């Protein structure tokens, strides 16, 4: 599925590719539904950031946003757009984003080849 990048006038961002992150089918379908529900289907993005915290030292922070900020990297993948700040990009390079409807551990899941340690709950990692 082709993903176009809208004209985010005045914002200085870089376009990345799926070597940084790939959005799998289930995550793409869920994201498209969320963005459509919020009225942001045309320009909205999922922001993924890596922040300090959790029992393994680092954790993901995700939010729906209207578009990239200056210096962000925008990755079109499977019909959606993901924005990542340059520092977080170092930690997520090569990752896959998936979605699970599982009752106990459902939600967005990042399969990160850079994570050398993950906690038992799956919410944090160390690189």
From TrEMBL:
GO terms for biological process: iron-sulfur cluster assembly. One of its GO terms (molecular function) is 2 iron, 2 sulfur cluster binding. Pfam families: Fe-S_biosyn. Residues 25-122 form the Core domain. PANTHER family: IRON-SULFUR ASSEMBLY PROTEIN ISCA, CHLOROPLASTIC. This is Iron-sulfur cluster assembly accessory protein.
């Amino acid at each position: 599925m082709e993903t176009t990048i809208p004209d985010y006038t005045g914002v200085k961002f870089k376009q990345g590719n799926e070597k940084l992150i790939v959005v799998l089918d289930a995550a793409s379908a869920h994201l498209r539904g969320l963005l459509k529900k919020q009225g942001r289907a045309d320009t909205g993005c999922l922001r993924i950031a890596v922040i300090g915290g959790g029992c393994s030292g680092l954790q993901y922070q995700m939010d729906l946003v209207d578009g990239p900020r200056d210096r962000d990297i925008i990755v079109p993948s499977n019909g959606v757009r993901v924005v990542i700040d340059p520092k977080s990009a170092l930690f997520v390079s090569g990752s896959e984003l998936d979605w699970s409807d599982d009752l106990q551990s459902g939600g967005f899941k990042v399969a990160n080849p850079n994570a050398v340690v993950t906690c038992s709950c799956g919410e944090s990692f160390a690189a």
